[in-house]
Design a protein that fits this description.
Blueprint: E1 2-6, H1 9-25, E2 30-34, H2 40-50, E3 60-64, E4 66-68, H3 78-85, H4 106-120, E5 123-124, E6 127-128, E7 132-135, H5 152-155, E8 160-164, E9 171-175, H6 177-180, E10 185-190, H7 196-204, E11 223-229, H8 230-233
Parallel strand pairs: 1-11, 2-3, 2-7, 7-10, 10-11
Antiparallel strand pairs: 4-9, 5-6, 8-9
Helix pairs in contact: 1-2
This protein binds 6-phosphogluconic acid.
Catalytic activity: 6-phospho-D-glucono-1,5-lactone + H2O = 6-phospho-D-gluconate + H(+)
Pathway: Carbohydrate degradation; pentose phosphate pathway; D-ribulose 5-phosphate from D-glucose 6-phosphate (oxidative stage): step 2/3
Organism: Roseivirga ehrenbergii (strain DSM 102268 / JCM 13514 / KCTC 12282 / NCIMB 14502 / KMM 6017)
Length: 235
């Protein structure tokens, strides 16, 4: 596991963009799962403004680690956010964008999206293997849409599961911990003081870390890194 700390959210997003630009040079295809929420917005802006011609976008096949069960036009949609901050500014073929149909029946969509991933990604250890999964961290220690009240989603052998937001009750589609830990590489991209306590507990295996889904993200055969700003690293 590697922990990389940067002075502020901009420097953290820039460093991650650099890293993405680097790793894509070494491959012909990159199956990547994006995180949702607000943290990726800055990364996407930097990719558009500084890397649009430095990255070979046709190599990328975009998936999501989780999605809210809302239409793509909703302000809550992770796909919608990615379209607004990244895709609409770049020439990325629709064939390379594999969004979760948040507008569909959650149970059916979890099966459909899991099947799509299994059909398109190489099977390793009986599960599809992503090249790179970007994860965020919630203030309650959740990651993707695996929340503390649904820890069973960490060990689920399915590819995707339906999850539920603990306070809003909003349905979510999420990759399971098994698929996340089957990835070649997992990168947490986490910024802001609000995350510092959970980051400290998870990285030091202290406090209530055993109740935080993010504590169980340990790729079986892959790499794990944390891209943190100073505020989130608590330094
Ligand atoms: C989502 C996410 C979720 C997110 C964390 C952090 O759909 O909400 O994928 O796991 O990464 O909640 O969210 P922020 O980046 O907004 O703090």
């Amino acid at each position: 596991m590697e922990i990389k700390t940067f002075k502020n959210p901009e420097a953290t997003a820039k460093a991650f963009a650099d890293y993405l630009s680097e790793i894509q040079q070494e491959v012909n295809r990159l199956n990547i799962a994006l995180s949702g929420g607000s943290t990726p917005k800055l990364l996407f802006e930097i990719l558009v403004h500084k890397y649009s011609d430095k990255i070979e976008w046709p190599k990328f096949h975009f998936y999501w680690g989780d999605e809210r069960c809302v239409p793509p036009t909703s302000g809550e949609s992770n796909y919608g956010m990615t379209h607004e901050y990244l895709f609409q500014h770049l020439d990325i073929s629709e064939e390379n964008i594999h969004r979760v149909f948040g507008e569909c029946d959650p149970d059916e969509e979890a099966v459909r999206y899991g099947k799509l991933i299994s059909e398109n990604l190489p099977p390793i250890n009986g599960l599809p293997q992503f090249d790179l999964i970007i994860l965020g961290l919630g203030e309650d220690g959740h990651t993707a849409s695996i929340f503390p009240h649904q820890m069973e989603l960490i060990t689920s052998k399915k590819v995707c599961e339906v999850a539920e937001h603990p306070t809003s009750g909003q349905k979510r589609i999420t990759l399971t911990g098994s698929v996340i830990n089957n990835a070649k590489e997992v990168c947490f991209l986490v910024t802001g003081q609000a995350k510092a306590e959970k980051v400290r507990e998870i990285l030091n295996l202290t406090g209530d870390c055993e109740h935080y889904p993010a504590s169980y993200i340990k790729p079986t055969h892959g790499e794990l890194s944390w891209f943190l700003d100073k505020a989130a690293s608590g330094k």
